[in-house]
Amino acid sequence: MSATTASAQSGAVKLPLKEKISYSFTDMAGNLLYVTISSYIMYFYTDVFGIAASGALGAATILLVARFADAISAVVWGSIVDHTNTKWGQSRPWFLWLCIPFAVTVFIAFTAPSLPNASMKFWYALVTYILAAGAVYTGIQTPITAILPNLTSDPKERNVANTFRMAGGQIGSFITSALTIPLVGFFGAALGGGAKVGFMVVTAIYGVIAIVLLLLAFKNLRERNFNPAASKPIPFKDSLRAAKGNWPWIILVVAFVVYWVAQSTRNGVSTYYAKYNLGNENLTSLFNGVQLIGLVGTALMPILTKKLKSKTFTMMVGLAIGAVGQLLMLTPLAKGSVAWAVAFWTIGVIGAAIACGMPFGMLADTVDYGEWKTGVHAAGFLTAVGSAFCIQVGSGFGAFVPLEIMNANGYVANAEQSQQSLNAISFCFVTLPVIVYAIVAAIMCFYIKFEKMEPQIKAELAERHAKAAAAEAQA
């Protein structure tokens, strides 16, 4: 077999089912803990820990400031992954090294110690939040996305592997979304201490599960060195060079930051909407529990992509479905019936699953574009900024904006809300995501022309890799 043929075959490998399932474990573990943070930390701070919703020492300030600190860590982690070179690979070892710190820091973030004043509560929450949702989570999220270009160069296999990943993420989201509030209530009552103790026990359980899942992913995944030069540590300035002029990556980053404003708002405000607008806090589990139906959207991603012959159009379809589901919740039918409200919310969940899942797979294509344009394969840096950075910044605004809107309209924790306050909660939960979806769709229109270039780019990169392999074999 010639070096050229061997290189092509190793690059375009068909992933075994065992590896696809193991790849799903990474996002399952990540979402099990991260969705717990994104869905419940706002509520935990304001209604359990006793931190004000807004103000200099408020929860909104914590979530915004911390997210920007976390966003910086995404850039750092991207460079760290690009400089990682071990016998286990470039991204894979981080699942082993960070699984326990990830679980421990999330547990600490949901610990509410008895502190004497608002200032100490603020600083405790800020530091533990930055550690859990930023420094350590980003260290997990970055290799989850960065490993995809190194698993295979086959675009269809990448899409399928990304679908498995998103499915795992949906299952992780479902577990925490459906079970957290009931389990918090159960353990809080059984052990005493109420929600404070309940959150500690639940996050400890989730942490153990996440550790096991990440260890299985580490054990079963393989990074195939189909382009030897790609695994060599690269200077940070070269990582930046791979981003400069990488317009598909820039467009995707901007769109994904904006998208996560909606995603974070939907998750974070659901508890408030259930508790105050619907009068039953436990309905949070019903709303968030249907996240599992997002698997339908995840399963539809490769089908729609094949049918529409475009990842961009598939993402736009997801945004449209999500917007329709959200808007239907404003109808009299939804306002008069919890069942109809949940049904329409479910439509939104399916659309959101499609819209959220597509960019993770598309990032691998922007890595290829950067290598094609500059010769630098900066998978760690580009995917870190394109995933973790976007999630952190978007989620920061997605927490800050609704809390500020609610506070400006008279929200008071653990009290009967005014009609104005209820309207504000409803706006944040239902309407604000629709506005964001429209902005994201407009941004993604600029991505279309770059997607059309992908066959040419992949063909030219394959030729370059084959020539490099042949030259190395002759040497």
CATH level 1 name: Mainly Alpha
Beta-strand content = under 5%
Helix vs. strand class: mainly alpha
Number of strands: 0
The CA-CA distance between the termini, in Å, is: 17 Å
Summarize the helix and strand pattern as letters. Answer: HHHHHHHHHHHHHHHHHHH
Estimate percent helicity. Answer: over 70%
CATH homologous superfamily classification = MFS general substrate transporter like domains
**CATH fold-type name:** Growth Hormone, Chain: A
Q: Mean pLDDT across all residues, rounded?
A: 87
- Shape designation: globular
Unreliable residue stretches = 1-10
Tally of helical runs:
19
Describe the protein in words.
The chain is mainly alpha-helical and 475 residues long. It has one domain (9-224, 234-474): MFS general substrate transporter like domains (Growth Hormone, Chain: A). Helices cover 80% and strands 0% of the residues. It has 19 helices and no strands. The protein has helices at residues 3-11, 17-49, 59-82, 93-109, 118-146, 148-151, 155-191, 194-220, 236-243, 247-277, 283-289, 294-308, 311-328, 332-335, 338-374, 379-408, 419-444, 448-451, 454-474. The longest helix has 37 residues, at 155-191. The protein is globular and about 75 Å long.
